[in-house]
Amino acid sequence: MSELVDRRRFFGSPRVFVATFCLVALASLALICGIENYRKDLERKRMEYLAFSKSHTISETIISLLYKAEALAALVVQGDGKIEEFERVAAILITDPAIRNILLAPGGVVSHVYPLKNNEEAVGFNLLGEGQGNREAISAKQTGRLTLGGPFETVQGGQALVGRLPVYVHRGGEQAFWGLVSVTLRYPEALKSVYLEDLYNQGYSCKIWRVNPDTGLRQIILQSDDEPLHKPVEKTFDILNAHWMISIAPRDVWYTRYIALFYLAGLLCCSLTAAVLARNYCETKRMKAMMEHMAMFDSLTGLPNRRYFFERLREEIDQCTARGGSFVLGYLDLDDFKYINDTYGHGSGDQALIRTAACLRRCLGDAHLAARIGGDEFVVMVKGESPEASQALLDELEKALREPLIDDNGRRFACSASLGRAVFPTDGTTEEELTAHADASMYRKKQRCRAHPR
């Protein structure tokens, strides 16, 4: 009897014991569900971040290659529709092995292709007629914008991604459609830098896909593996008037018995629970800050990226249009950057990019804006008291960029750059006009440097 009394004194009455057990069990279950939902939200935010990061990488990769079409269009416009020195300019534009060819299509019919070898079948092809990829060409003509097409089978064989850009010239005081210029990218080689394997190694499956406008069916562009996705995070992103989708999902199930047991054990120690919550809260803030920074800045040079710069450019155009101001847009491209990479290694190439970014910061200071928009291409926006003062500052910048580079191995080599310029509003009043003018100016300077090397 005394043993039974001792047990009741320790446990209390059976009803209280059962009630307390049930209440604690319910509270524990509610807290576990809350923590697990919180973990699920964190996991979903992480996947959203990964989807954003990969889509941003894809956009930058494709845009940096296809914007070569702008320079080709500028060549046609400057020639008033006449095609001169096409092969020489095209040879300069094809600086990346991912570019398969560049072509001109007056009236939509291909007349010039570079390189012609292995692309003879493309000559005479009507980009505005029937065929795979032609819907994108028609869309480019209708919208007047550079439009991404593909991947699809080309007439000369193999799959490719293409950028179609409509060109308009002055005819009778009006802008008349001249035709299309196009840059063709090797597929899937052009997307090698996207590297979905890192997501697979982190425990995620990823697929990049689109709805094929020719068939209306889902077309896989890239994928980390062949496994089906379970409740994926999906994000639509636009690349040059084309709509692509990225889907990311964990390779394993959301919940496991071991994780639930781990949380249940953690409930026995309040300090451990508080530590887990604090860590998750800080991780969320860190990931948010990282997402915001990576969305606007280049990881190698620390400069703003394409997205940040062109948002600021549009704001500056609107402000100058309203108050009558002026500024100078500069396009900067390193000379012989491929030669530096091939001869001295990619480490020296990265040092050249970092040195260029440091030179831009030193010469421009905080009053002006510089950004890296992809590869070895940079842009600057100089807001001086007058266009002459801005031009003088850019002259000083060009001089500073001619200084030779000494890499970490003590090797000294030339690392110059070609800088094209466009003055608002003299050379254009829109983002497209200014960038096209500055880009064309840069390539003309690059041609002169190659024709008359120092």
Provide the CATH architecture of the domain at 306-451.
2-Layer Sandwich
Question: Could you tell me the number of beta strands?
Answer: 15
Instruction: Characterize the overall form.
Output: globular
The sequence of SSEs as H and E is: HHHHEEHEEEHEEEEHHHEHHEEHEEEH
In percent, how helical is the residue content? Answer: 40-55%
* Whole-angstrom Rg: 29 Å
Quaternary state of this entry equals single chain
User: Uncertain runs with pLDDT below 50, 5 residues or more?
Assistant: 1-13
Residue-averaged pLDDT: 83
Biggest β-sheet: strands ordered side by side in the sheet: 2-1-5-4-3
Computed structural class: alpha+beta
Through-space gap between termini: 108 Å
Q: Strand percentage, roughly?
A: 15-25%
Describe the structure.
- The structure is a single chain.
- This protein is of the alpha+beta class and 454 residues long.
- Among the domains are: 67-190, Beta-Lactamase; 306-451, Alpha-Beta Plaits, CATH 3.30.70.
- The protein has helices spanning 2-11, 14-66, 68-78, 86-93, 134-143, 197-201, 257-266, 270-296, 306-323, 337-344, 346-364, 387-401, 431-451; strands at residues 99-106, 112-114, 147-153, 159-171, 174-186, 204-211, 218-223, 233-239, 242-250, 327-334, 369-374, 377-382, 405-406, 412-413, 417-424.
- It has a five-stranded antiparallel beta sheet with strand order 2-1-5-4-3.
- The chain is globular.
